[in-house]
Structure formats: C-alpha cells, structure tokens
Amino acid sequence: MAQAAPNPFQPLLGTQPNIGFTKAALAVSHRAGKAAPKARPGVRKGAQGCNNLSKPETTADTQAQAQDEGPRLKSEFHRIACPHCESPATIRRSNQVTNLTREYAFACTNFECGHTFSATMEITRTLSPSATPNPTVRLPLSTHVRRDLMREQLACAQPSDYRTTQTAPVTLELFGTSPPAD
Hints:
This protein is an alpha+beta fold. It has helices at about 20-25, 60-70, 145-155; strands spanning about 80, 90-100, 100-110, 115-120. It is built from three helices and four strands.
C-alpha cells in the first residue's frame, strides 16, 4: 500500500514554522515523481528558480540588456535613447506647455556619456474618438478611421444605462448639443 505524501504546509515538530512553506515553494518547480530540471550551465542557482540570470561580463552587455528590457519603473512611461551613445535615457522632469504639448528633460543612463537633453512630445491625431470629447481640443482624425461607418453606427445606436466612474456624467450628443427628445 502506497504511503501518502506528507503535507508540505504542515510544519514538522521541533522545526521552524515556515519550513513547510519553503518545501511547498521548492516542490512547485516540478511534479511529484519526476526529476527536477537541471540548472543551465553558467547560471546562478536560486532557491525557488527565480532570478536565474547569467551575469553580464561587460558594461556593453549591461547596456545592451537594459535596452532590450522594457521600463524598469512604473513611473517611467517614455523610453528614448540617448542620441550620442544610444543608451536608455530617463525622465528627470517634465512640464505641460499646452494641452497637446509637453516638454521633457532626459538624462542618459550611461555614466560615461552623461548627456542631458530636452524633448517635446506633441499629440498629433486622434486614432479613436473620445467618449467624453473636449470641444476646445481640435485634433485631426486619423485616415484609418471609417467615418461613414462611425456616422451610421452613431445614428442607429440605442442608449444604454451606464453610470460613469471616472468622469462627470453628461448626456449630450457627439457635438455638444442637447439630447434629442424621444
């Protein structure tokens, strides 16, 4: 008769209370009855299989790896390369110029370059119309938008009850006039 496997969440008597969780975390990496996969050569071994990254040999490797990866910080939305060394640059400050334009100050992450520069971002076209348009914003509509189909869909669309959570509730037509009387 086969003996049941011990419960990894039940700590053994006389041991630390978290040893069961450690065993469970280590057991997740492979199924029962199968051998655990062998570590790749040249890779550091982690306790849970996490962070198994090979160590970059040079600063050029580090910079290439940083360029291949996405943003590292949640607050870092815009990625731009330094025009001199092509290393990633981070935003140091920004200020709103107009409602369609923003100016950014960037700093190169390559300490040997150290370049700081300014860039301007401008909103140039609408790809998908806003559900809450601002009548003072005049942006051209992208040529890929099928205006005839949008016009037809808006003309025959039935209203649906919806309570806004992010914007002030407004029930106006597309061009800011009062809703039609039923």
